[in-house]
Amino acid sequence: MRNTLRGVGLVWLLALLVAACQGEGSGGGPTAPTALAQPTSAVPASGSRPQGGPPQPRETATPAASSGPSPLPAGAGVVFAAANGLWVVEEGKPPRQLTAETDISHPLIAPTKAWVVYRREASGQAELWAISWAGGSPKRVLSARELPPSPTGLQSVTWGRTVFLPRSNKLLFNTVFIGSGGSSTPNDDLWSLNIETGQIKTLLPAGQAGFFVPDFDAGKIAVSRPSRGQTPGAVFVVNAEGGDPKTYLEFPPAPRRQPYPAAHWARDGSGFLLAVEQGDGLDLYRVPLDGTGEKFGRIEGQPINLTWSPDRRRLAYSRLAVPSAPTPAPAENYAVVIADASDENAQPYARGLFVNWSPDSARFVYQDGPAVYLGTYSQPTRLLGTAAGSLWDVRWMTTRALVYLTGASGRPGESPELVYRTVAGDPLLLLPKTPQPRGLWFDIIPNPYPEG
Questions:
Q1: Is residue 51 packed enough to be buried (19+ CB in 10 Å), middle (13-18) or exposed (0-12)?
Q2: Model pTM?
Q3: How far apart are CA 347 and CA 338, in angstroms?
Q4: What is 8-445's CATH topology?
């Protein structure tokens, strides 16, 4: 699923893959307001508007091999799936191999840092395995053979979206049906799997769920289901331990097939924000858990990569700046737009595609053509890297530190490298260079973006 930064396709991936925590060299959550904020002015006034301009040349430095202990901050960790097994990197220590098993992909670190789960293939069937962060013998916790079969029996079934429930060892997942041509169809169900005990529980049966997003620590899950035909779409919340879901919002049928909306939770779990496609634009909703959902904004046109800042006071997205450009268009035909949470006071920031926010909402990553930049409101734009250097999958580890892949495109015989850097420092390799090709899957902790 990973590739080099080429065109709009990969930036969709970048926008989905984000992770963060507060403070360079320290853990903890962002210093953002915890409740659902009312719209406030997001774009600085004239004279202090977002800063662009040429990048600093030193930001194009080639990542240097880290000598000695890992440079990661205290409490942080990275897991990386390689061709020769599964590796972890943590603060003050050299890389450590967890297991030498092959064909490993999609590792995830439990929020407790007790377990690492990963995917393997066995006789054409997907299996989910778990191993202690400290090491030891891996154990199989789920096989696709154990999932309910498709109604027709003509499609294989596997799990789709997988997200850990914050502050726990419980994994949330849904299932998808895979057709003979490789096409996938969501089953719109929701399950939980306790990695510690192996207990599997159905939270919502097939056809009753949708796109799910857990809150930050209270054990609530927002589930959104788009309209289909004349059936209205809905957003509801279910408890992570089970029980009947509570509906907070229904929206009317759309003239064309809607994508699944995704909830953006407030830090204190008091509610969430949501963007729903309606006609030739997006309706923006605020959904407090002590009330009902209300529409509080709208964006005309078809913006992409729409993401609210972690403090939920700002909104960023990209829209076509060249009306005649084909769809999908190259990144250079888009403009990054920064606005209030309700899309008031929207201003173009730079040419390119928005990728993600820093956890303190003060910085963001975006792509302009082959170049990947770090944007901010108080300092000039800085260059992180270019497609020629193969930089992709940028994730925030703290408010001032990032982890990403660079160095190769994943082509046969080439090896991507895992890089750590602070916003003011030079990039450092977390794993030494070897001639052995590596996979393109990794995960990080801390991760205060539990929505996945």
A1: middle
A2: 0.84
A3: 6
A4: Methylamine Dehydrogenase; Chain H (2.130.10)
